[in-house]
């Protein structure tokens, strides 16, 4: 599936089925692949893989092999991107390197009078009150302001995300 070969995907699926592999194990691996290797190149892949897992739980062998085959073909035939995998890896590394950086005051909730006096929420811009439902407001801690963590992959779906982000953030993150 990772190599975009539906023929091989179905062949190896059949080998696992005939070898007695637990169908839930197969469906679980498809769920992981849908996020790890397809991701935002085709967000529907995760939905289909989730439905596959649920259907496999409800149906069981032998009928669930049809569901597994359909899903394997779809996932193998889908555009691929690991940008979400790379992004969470980078973010986790950044967190481990920088520790518990403070939440910017502007995006802190201020449910009490004391919090309001301490400027929690001061300067917050509600996106829906701005053109295009976007407000140019920094959400990262000041110490890592402007750090680009997510870089859209090279595929049609993420090209649309890149254009949207470029339109919103202009040159800030160099999308």
Topology:
Blueprint: H1 6-18, H2 23-38, H3 44-59, H4 64-76, H5 83-98, H6 113-117, H7 156-169
Q: Work out the oligomeric state of the chains in this entry.
A: single chain
Q: How many helices?
A: 7
Globally, the shape reads: elongated
Estimate percent helicity: 40-55%
Q: What about the largest sheet?
A: none
Percent in strands: under 5%
How many structural units, i.e. domains? 2
Low-confidence stretches: none
| SSE order | HHHHHHH
DSSP strand count: 0
The whole-angstrom Rg is: 22 Å
Quick description:
The protein is mainly alpha-helical and 175 residues long.
Describe it for me?
It is elongated, with a radius of gyration of 22 Å. The two termini are 29 Å apart. The chain is an all-alpha fold and 175 residues long. It has helices spanning 6-18, 23-38, 44-59, 64-76, 83-98, 113-117, 156-169. The chain contains 7 helices and no strands. The chain is 53% helix and 0% strand. The model has no long low-confidence stretch (mean pLDDT 97). The chain has 2 domains: 6-76, Zinc Finger, Delta Prime, domain 3 (Up-down Bundle), CATH 1.20.272.10; 98-169, no CATH class.
What keyword list fits this structure?
mainly alpha; Zinc Finger, Delta Prime, domain 3
């Amino acid at each position: 599936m990772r190599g975009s070969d539906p023929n091989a995907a179905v062949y190896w699926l059949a080998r696992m089925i005939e070898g007695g592999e637990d169908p839930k194990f197969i469906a679980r691996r498809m769920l992981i692949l849908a996020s790890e290797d397809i991701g935002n190149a085709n967000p529907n892949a995760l939905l289909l893989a989730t439905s596959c897992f649920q259907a496999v739980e409800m149906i069981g062998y032998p009928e669930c092999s049809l569901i597994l085959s359909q899903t394997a073909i779809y996932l193998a035939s889908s555009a691929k991107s690991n940008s979400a995998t790379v992004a969470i890896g980078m973010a986790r590394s950044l967190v481990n390197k920088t520790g518990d950086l403070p939440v910017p005051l502007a995006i802190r909730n201020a449910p009490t009078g004391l919090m309001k006096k301490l400027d929690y929420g001061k300067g917050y811009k509600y996106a829906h009150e701005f053109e295009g439902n976007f407000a140019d407001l920094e959400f990262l801690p000041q110490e890592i302001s402007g750090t680009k963590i997510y870089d859209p992959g090279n595929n049609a779906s993420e090209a649309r995300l890149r254009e949207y982000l470029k339109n919103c953030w202009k040159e800030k993150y160099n999308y």
